[in-house]
Amino acid sequence: MAQVAVILPAAGQSSRFGGIEKKPFVSLDGRPVWQRAAELFWNRPDVSRVYVVVGPDDLDEFRARFGHMLAFTNAQVVTGGAERFESVANALDVVPDDVDLVAIHDAVRPLTPLRLVDAVFRAALEHGAALLAVPLADTLKKVDPKTMTLVDTVPRAGLWKAQTPQVFRRDWIVEAYAKRALFGGTITDDCQLVEALGHAVHVVEGSAANFKITTKEDLQLAESILQARVPKTVERPKLAFDEEAKW
Questions:
Q1: What is the pLDDT of residue 136?
Q2: Is 246 part of any domain?
Q3: Residue 173 burial (CB count, 10 A)
Q4: Is 99 a domain residue?
Q5: Domain encompassing residue 49
């Protein structure tokens, strides 16, 4: 069985979320968001370890609040960097050489259906690199930010919205990160780095439920989805019987 290391970057600033707590640490139906994301992976037999990457300013708080949750799991806390790519690079530095695949998953994307985790792991094992993505359904508009008026309509044919997990052969993603300074331009996700090496990335169709929690409204939606997934207890009808009857 191929072994997968999972990296969960949770070191962002959560600037769009607002509030006192950063979004990976807020409660989502009774458990922190980052834990909901980690639980997708840490009981899988094909996952060797889950690396939760936490910002240096949050390490003490994280260990105080959540350290007990990691005691009986295969999770490890890694110190993050100033930027997301620094955080992932720090985690890659501690991933063992004998791991076959590395999966990078947003710590604030807690609702990924398990069947899609299975599917993207299989695709990465077969093709070397794979991600979840969904085709765009809405009309795209280009807007002038100064006047807030429409400039153009962007054809959506062939456009897909990237999701995570994004999963790669360990040697590919390690090489991609080692050479990331050479690629130039704006790199917004890990697949771009692997593509820049010349490797094709296979697409597995994702799900609208696999969204990233960015705002308070996203958190409320995630709460509703989780509660809808819980099987409802069906109350058994009361039976009329003779109290003196033997059962």
A1: 92
A2: no
A3: 28
A4: yes
A5: 4-229
Query: What is the tally of structural domains in the chain?
Result: 1
Which SS3 state, helix, strand or coil, does residue 182 take?
Answer: helix
Q: Nearest-CA neighbor of 83 among 18, 177, 211, 219?
A: 177
Q: Are 76 and 99 in contact (CB under 8 A)?
A: no
The pLDDT, as a whole number, for residue 236 is 57
Tokens of 218: 């996203």
Low-confidence ranges of the chain (pLDDT < 70): 12-20, 231-247
Q: Which of 215, 239, 231, 211 is nearest to 106 (CA)?
A: 211
Q: Are 85 and 104 in contact (CB under 8 A)?
A: no
Query: What CATH number should be reported for the domain holding residue 191?
Result: 3.90.550.10
Please report the sign of the dihedral spanned by the C-alpha atoms of residue 105, residue 40, residue 77, residue 224. Answer: positive
pLDDT, tens digit, 9 for 90 and up, residues 4-53: 999 999 986 655 555 667 899 999 999 999 999 999 999 999 999 999 99
200 with 206: CB under 8 angstroms?
no
Closest by Cα among 65, 80, 84, 71 to 42 = 71
Q: How many helices (H) and strands (E) in the chain?
A: 8, 11
pLDDT in the model for residue 187:
75
Q: Are strands 149-154 and 140-144 parallel, antiparallel or unpaired?
A: antiparallel
